[in-house]
Design brief:
about 280 residues, alpha/beta, TIM Barrel, about 40% helix, globular, disordered C terminus
Amino acid sequence: MRVDYHCHSCFSRREKVVVEGLNTPKEIVEHARKLRLGAVGITDHDSIEGSLIAKRLEKKYGVVVITAEEVSTRSGHVLALGINEWIKPDMTVEDTVDAVHDQGGVAVAPHPFDIYNEGIKDKAVLCDAMEGFNALNLDRISNKKASRFGARNMMTMLAGSDAHCVEMMNHGVISVKAEDMDGVLNAIRKGRFAVSKSKYIPMKIIKDWSARRLKFSYDEVLSYINENYSWPKRVVSSRLLSLVNMYPGRIDYLFRGIAYASLGATITYSAMREVVGISKSIY
């Protein structure tokens, strides 16, 4: 079966832009069936609620649901696949991995070298597997660094979509011979799978997701701006934020320009960081 193990539902929330995952657990399972995926994992940030809801829909839609959570450790994120109870955030990577294993789950290091420093970097060796490819690492360099690290440390490497809306699904997929969640977990533990798809998520989808999450988080973001920004930054930011209320529509060209400018900045920053890192290692 084809498995998209790294997906976020509406239960994934953040601090500034509150809404992160756009779709309900039900919508994710429904879409997984449309994509002919055999299994899907719902890995919400510091929440297991979405995956437990989806698990109850497993038989109805004929899609295996991997109950999971993306846990925020003190060093970065760890995917806890196959757990049944919530794992609290802000523990060490070591304690988090132990908590995953205590529930019979599999610990995976997602996007270990991403430019946002949300990965656990070298501590990925403490996990059962790691992402050698993450479809949201659009700078490419982060994935190449992860692949080199994984090969050097002889780690099991997966490919994950890191989907935050259903349109992002089916970009990082593995194939396993399994019939249920336990079978999928065992295949990952033993490295008995194949990466069947590793494709970067198109900018059009990311642009749409970014605009929609800003729109859904409008009140919270505006409140943050008013409370934390001084004039004139507060005025400029508020007016820019108001543009999301015109999306989609004639304003689309502006969001498209911002999206590609952000991509260029991301790639440039990632490349410069890599060069500085290499220089430091030499001297």
